[in-house]
Amino acid sequence: MIQITEAHIDSLAPNSSAIKNAQGLVKKNKYIQLNRSENGELLFGECAGSGSSNYVCSADFIVAEKPVLRCSCPSRQLPCKHTLGLLYAYAGGAAFTEAPVPEDIISKRGKAEKREEKKAKQGEEGAAPKPKKVNKSALKKKLQAQLEGLDLLEKFTESLIRSGLATMDNKKLLTLNEHVKQLGNYYLPEAQTQLRRLALLFMHDEHEQIYTHAMDRLTRIHAFIRKGRAHLNERLADPDLKLDHESTMEEWLGHAWQLAELKELGLITEQAELIQLSFLSFDDAARLEYVDAGFWLETATGDIHETISYRPHKAAKHMREEDTFFEMAQVKTLYRYPGEMNRRIRFEEMKSRPLAEEDFQAAAAHARRSYADVIKQVKSQLKNPLADTSPVVLLHVQNTLQTDRGEYVITDESGNQIVLGDVLVSLGYESLELLPLLRPELLRDSAMLVMFSHDLDSGCLMAQPLSIIKDKEIVRLLF
């Protein structure tokens, strides 16, 4: 018999509306028929719809890590509310009658098995992997175009600095946005994003309050131009035009890493277990996308990874929306992207199980105990203008104190302190106000997941608490 929890079903849903609608179908007893196969690997049934005929839905767990959800309804959402409701009914203890596997499912399974056999045959041990075909001539043209785009970006930003940020007006903002569009012809999406971020500063804030942040943006753009140009020239000089898998430069230059590439580079871990410690969802106006970001602890290594899902504004309603996940994710293959702290990860096949007491203990044991070492590592990353400016670390908290100025600080066993602050306030996420509401024992001898940030106005390094691990619970301050 398969084990399905509501948390796992939630993780399969495309968005919160699908979850609500699916649970509504169960509550309203819309399922006319509920069946399961003899071995329990297949759930199937019929759900009353708006038409005269019922919708036939099924959930096939013949590959437990990658269930196949099917339905005869015309919905463009995958999976639809009918298949999700089928799973919620099963998880909720509804009675499923044993029945033979339908012929159409047997046929579809057969086709799927043939596809998997073909893949397995192609990837057999000892079989030489087929080299990825690269049109070097076309690639060189693209790299040359990117160099031209960087030259254009440099000329524009130098002109902007020479004229002075204080002269920024609506006319210059219009010119800035025209350059954003123009860079789209040079395969430089990140350059477009950075210029858009600069424009948004002047569009929504008083000029006197944003000069420091504007200069920080221009510093990042300058570093991108300098490092990007050197990298592109290196690739053009290389007969094989090899990608750089040591840094995030390829992503800055618009390369979308394929899973096959990451596997070929050895950036994978087989049979990994992950605990999600925090989750954020926000609208990134500069990218013109919604962003779903999850921070996960890899239990074997203690590394804090990040999953990132982008949903373009124009297509968001047709795309799956990520959500908070409360169980242990048992991942068949974990793919790691190039980077430093909090490397981006991705996985496609997953099973889940409820967290056990030993899981909480193992997670807390990975908390970093020396703040001096952590701060040194964080500052080292922040020195790189192209690195992530908000690294996340799991810290052991000896105590949480409030200073005479009303600031909250956490201390390690040596008495070193880190100032807490709401670094995500611009995204609408604040957590400091929750600290007085927590049980006092949660703020002593516990593990705290924090996001660091360098406050440009004060010049101070501070951290925002995201979640706390204590004994048998994870208290999420943001999710």
Put simply, the count of helices is: 12
Tally of DSSP β-strands? 18
Q: If you compute it from the alpha carbons, what radius of gyration comes out, rounded to the nearest whole angstrom?
A: 26 Å
**Helix/strand/pairing class, anyone?**
alpha+beta
What can be said about the biggest beta sheet?
A: 6 strands, antiparallel
Query: What percent of residues are in strands?
Result: 15-25%
Distance from first to last alpha carbon: 32 Å
The percentage helix is: 25-40%
User: Runs with pLDDT <50, length 5+?
Assistant: 124-129
Q: Which whole number gives the mean pLDDT?
A: 90
Number of domains: 4
Strand/helix succession: HHEEEEHEHHHHHHHEEEEEEHHEEEEEEE
